[in-house]
Structure formats: C-alpha cells, structure tokens
Design brief:
mainly alpha; 2 helices; 97 residues
C-alpha cells in the first residue's frame, strides 16, 4: 500500500478503492495470539496451516540425509572409543560440512 497516492498534508489515501481495501483489511484483522492471519496476510510462525499439503521431500534426498545421520553417529562412536583407548592423545575436532 506504500504505492498508493496520499495527500502530503493530511497523509490520507487519495484513491477511494485503495482506501476502502485498507480499511476493510484493518477491520477484519484478528489478534495474533489466535494463530490466524493478521493484518495484511502475515501468518504467525507458530501456527501451521491445517489445509496446506505437507512439503514435498525427494525420497532420494531423504535417504541420503538418513545416511549422513547414520555415518555421523558412527563417527562419533568411533571417536569416543578412540578417546577411551588413548586418553593421552589429542584428536582433532573436525566439523561436518
């Protein structure tokens, strides 16, 4: 609505249609704590849309991610075992990509 022409002195919107739409949106707004759409259609972050379909997840990517998680868990177990076997050694802390 920033593109609507306004009167410089009063700040009122000159276009009647835009003014009516803005006032309609303002009157139909619901408090944000209800988890519904508010003001100009912003969605509260905590409320997921119940009628929206679940996001698409590529099965191949999901399998790859599961493989990464499994490998990471195995690597952590191996590092713990090495630290127990060689307590005086200092092992590098390698971050995941």
């Amino acid at each position: 609505m920033k593109r609507a022409y306004t009167n410089k002195k009063t700040g009122q919107i000159n276009d009647g249609l835009v003014r009516d739409v803005v006032s309609l949106v303002q009157t139909q707004s619901v408090p944000k704590k209800k988890g519904r759409l508010v003001d100009l259609g912003r969605r509260s972050r905590s409320a997921a849309p119940s009628s929206a379909p679940p996001p698409y997840v590529d099965p191949e990517m999901a399998a790859q991610q599961a493989g990464y998680k499994t490998q990471k868990k195995l690597n952590e177990q191996m590092m713990e075992m090495m630290k127990r076997m060689y307590p005086n050694e200092v092992f590098p802390n390698i971050q995941d990509p």
